[in-house]
Amino acid sequence: RIDGARLWASLMEMARIGATPAGGCNRQALTDEDKQGRDLFLQWCREIGCEVRIDRMGNIFVRRAGSEPDAPPVVTGSHLDTQPTGGKFDGVYGVLAGLEVLRTLEDQGVRTRASLELVVWTNEEGARFSPAMIGSGVWAGEFSLEYGHGRADKSGATIGEELRRIGYLGEEPAEPKPIAAAFEVHIEQGPILEKKNEVIGVVTGVQGIRWYDVTFHGTPCHAGPTPMADRRDPVQALALLCERLYSEVKAYSDDARMTCGDLRAEPGSRNTVPEKVALALDLRHPQPEGLEHLHRTLYRMADQVEEATGVAIDVREEWHSPPVVFDSQCIEAVDDAAKALGCSHRKMVSGAGHDSVYVSRVAPVSMIFVPCAGGLSHNEAESAEPDHLEAGCNVLLQAMLARAGT
Amino acid sequence: RIDGARLWASLMEMARIGATPAGGCNRQALTDEDKQGRDLFLQWCREIGCEVRIDRMGNIFVRRAGSEPDAPPVVTGSHLDTQPTGGKFDGVYGVLAGLEVLRTLEDQGVRTRASLELVVWTNEEGARFSPAMIGSGVWAGEFSLEYGHGRADKSGATIGEELRRIGYLGEEPAEPKPIAAAFEVHIEQGPILEKKNEVIGVVTGVQGIRWYDVTFHGTPCHAGPTPMADRRDPVQALALLCERLYSEVKAYSDDARMTCGDLRAEPGSRNTVPEKVALALDLRHPQPEGLEHLHRTLYRMADQVEEATGVAIDVREEWHSPPVVFDSQCIEAVDDAAKALGCSHRKMVSGAGHDSVYVSRVAPVSMIFVPCAGGLSHNEAESAEPDHLEAGCNVLLQAMLARAGT
Ligand SMILES: NC(=O)NCCC(=O)O
Ligand SMILES: NC(=O)NCCC(=O)O
Q1: A122-147 per-position pLDDT tens digit
Q2: What residues does Zn(2+) 2 bind to (chains A, B) (predicted)?
Q3: How far is CA B353 from CA A225, A376, B202, B263, B329, in A?
Q4: Ligand of minimum distance to the alpha carbon of A132
Q5: Which one, out of A341, B107, B186, B321, has a CA that is 20 to 30 A from the CA of A382?
Q6: Choice from A79, A95, A125 to test ligand 1 binding pocket (greatest atom count within 8 A of CB)
Q7: Which residues from chain B sit within 8 angstroms of residue A249, using beta carbons?
């Protein structure tokens, strides 16, 4: 069994880095705070004598050698980066639970047969750099290294530059080696476990995600003398498209999701009709056909609104992460561990993307969820029960041991 | 008669300061570019030997003494600041037409009875600092000096600080002295004169304007796992309110105006429902009852949308400039001048706010409009015919001479 108090203490210590006044964390990918978080993590890893490698995407691989060092390792990991107004658990819990597993084995002098590896993936959130999960995505071969290094934040700084700046541009190639199995533990970030009063989610897959940059091109003009009928007002087009799309998404299915996370008008002067409005859009659905329907609806409605308003609407797809089904044996390993530990549990599909999505391209994978208060995540008030975090970490330990052998 | 070629040359020289790649100007209030524009203007004024005073709001008063220096002066003026993507004529034309009047009288050795004063008002656009026309507004007693100095731009820099920084925080009190009459010449910024093929607008008044900061307060949450029904999404509320309000404004009357010039989501991360969305809203109508109707409609609809979406909507009125009717004798002086010069002309109400609105609180005022291409303004492509600019300047000269006497 792991040490729940030590896990909690490590979570709280990490949460001080980038702590926000409202009790959350702002430790966005490849910022100074991310560097501090990585440094603290590596210090903890050195204390238990693990070997560390860093790849060209800044992904950190921590290895605890097994008795058969050539056997493919059993892997766990998640991310240390947060949303700009993120919480203390999203991602961090998966990393520090992995560390707690290694610490526990070290304490108890347990040597596994296969080696264990703990990974910190770069820029999972997709908040500073788009798309999400790009560290694991490049590593798994979904994106090229050039693409990864070239992604820029709103100020124009790129992942490549920022990796070099904070000293985490590693030497290892960002590419997979054989892996026996991989597990990731994470807070659910949704309301199901809490509502059902269950402690462990046995994650069978991840829903599909498509990201878009939607730009509405209007004609700037004066707020006063210009008749309404003579305007090409990008905000009119934005309002009409969003109104229709929200209605359609909600009517289509309870499983469909639409989020307009960012919005910006240029030049942004109150008495000038904007020249353009930029919208960052996120659509999701657990089934490929459902996601395809939302995708086609977006393009169709954009055409209709363009027609109706005279505002040119440019819809550029930025990212597509299709629905993923996890490995049945890894799912079973999680299910068995939850049973063995006497934890109430249910099978479920993840609503959020995770590094496990890309890891699952090259290795057998499953995930473990624990409840978070009110299902709230990507919010500074994100919170989770120490008991639940301990239970999830014990499930991780048992699943990893089952697959690594002792 | 004024020298149209010299007027045009001065406009083009001023337009180099803050020139944008798309052929417009970005010379926002109290920036380095505004300082350069003011410096150039003062150099031109010194060349014709005028006395210059600067007040505590950075308003510049240029005086050409008359033969009865104690008689209240006849005043003209406008502004040198621009929108972030503004044109070469909005405001600047009124200032440089005033300069051209003074240059012409100097050339021809004409001494007026009453003195003439040419004013450059600070921050007319309201683009960098809200509200618009604040230099003339403080001077006329609509706002206190403390209020004026305290207004901040998006980065937090205040008018007081920026006036000091660029060296235009003058010593004179920002308060009016007796004025015989005031005239302001400006491009129309709307399509009427061009459509009617007329050269001079005799401006009888200015429509009413109300500005609002509308803030939609949502609950940040994750774009994936959070069910649509559990969200308080400020973008849903924004879209619904804008959709309804645009429809109502367009249905209410052809004279009504609604502009959403600025829009911003916080924290602005694609996979997080925003915590808040801020909208800068501008409503206008020529009649007080019409503007009041739009105002009440906004508050009523905001309540309805708040009810429907669960998103708290905070509507804060930022500025109210009621409809203004100009002085009948000044209107007549412009009308007479246009007739005497044989210019086609029509009476009209201004759709844009102008410094003349606040000057009219303390002095008899009227304005002169000339056409601009396609009625386009607050746009880098803003353009006007040299002939029309010359005609407007001659009307200004004649109206000022008629009121100042020779
Ligand atoms: N777990 C998590 O918050 N991932 C961010 C990627 C996503 O948008 O789902
Ligand atoms: N003339 C002009 O563009 N003034 C700006 C104030 C307004 O918004 O009407």
Answers
A1: 999 999 999 999 999 999 999 999 99
A2: 90, 125, 378
A3: 10, 46, 15, 22, 21
A4: 1
A5: A341
A6: A125
A7: 228
Q: Which residues of B touch A278 (CB under 8 A)?
A: none
Rounded to the nearest whole angstrom, what is the distance from the C-alpha of residue A65 to the centroid of ligand 2?
Answer: 71
- Ligand 2 centre from A233 Cα, in Å? 18
Q: Which CA distances in Å does A61 have to A147, A291, A366, B81? A: 21, 34, 19, 56
What whole-number distance in Å separates Cα of residue B78 and Cα of residue B55?
15
For the stretch B42-69, pLDDT in tens is: 999 999 999 999 999 999 999 999 999 9
B197-241 tens-digit pLDDT: 999 999 999 999 999 999 999 999 999 999 999 999 999 999 999
Buried b or exposed e, range B33-56, using 16+ CB within 10 angstroms: bbbbbbebbbebbeeeebeeebbb
From residue A70, give the alpha-carbon distance in Å to each of A67, A118, A178: 9, 17, 10
Amino acid letter, residue B24? G
Per-residue confidence (pLDDT) for residue B55, from 0 to 100: 98
Q: Do B189 and A225 touch (CB under 8 A)?
A: yes
pLDDT of residue B62: 98
Contacts of B256 in chain A (CB under 8 A): 228
Average pLDDT over residues B286-303: 98
pLDDT given for residue B345 in this prediction: 98
Mean pLDDT within B241-250: 98
The structure tokens listed for A354 are 């995770």
Cis omega before residue B267 (within 30°)? Answer: yes
Helix (H, G, I), strand (E, B), or coil: what is residue A350? strand
Between the CA of A235 and the centroid of ligand 2 the distance, in Å, is: 20
Answer whether B151 touches A (CB < 8 Å): no
Chain B residue nearest residue A268, CA to CA: B262
Two tokens at B148? Answer: 């004026």
Query: pLDDT digits over A159-190, tens only?
Result: 999 999 999 999 999 999 999 999 999 999 99
- ∠ at Cα A231 (A230, A233), nearest 5°? 165
Measuring from each residue's beta carbon to the nearest atom of ligand 2, which residues come in under 6 Å?
A 222-224, 271; B 90, 124-126, 132, 189, 352-354
The strand pairing partners of A369, in sequence order, are: A186, A201
CA angle A287, A290, A296 (to 5 degrees): 140
Percent share of chain A, pLDDT over 90? 100
Other beta carbons less than 10 A from residue B8's beta carbon: 17
Mutate to test the interface with A, among B211, B378, B383 (most CBs of A within 10 A): B378
Reported as a pLDDT band with limits 50, 70 and 90, residue A207 is very high
- Which chain B residue shows the shortest CA-CA distance from A237? B243
| Closest ligand to Cα B225 | 1
Band (B190; pLDDT cuts 50, 70, 90): very high
Helix axes B328-340, B386-404, angle to 10 degrees: 120
Residue B183 and residue B234 in contact, taking contact as beta carbons nearer than 8 Å: no
